[in-house]
Amino acid sequence: MRRTLEFLKWKSSSWFAKTSLKSNQSLAPALREGLNAYAFRQAEVFTSLHDHFFSLWRGLTASNGASNHLTPIPTQTEEAMEGVNGGDADM
How much is the pTM? Predict the structure, then answer.
């Protein structure tokens, strides 16, 4: 369980990092915007998967007497989306 959560956290961070990279300036602005939006969406998907599995598995580790090594990840996409489109993260 912990490995799955770590992978999802890593994958979300990986996609989120791609949103802050300066895209190739030879690309059309609309294409750059689309690639950036895709990266934000992928980061959100992996964050959502992590949060879903975290909520499902949180009780399992506590009920089995195992130490709880499950840690939630910060909502990077919400913080990043605050400045995009006037702060409307519900697009």
Answer: 0.64
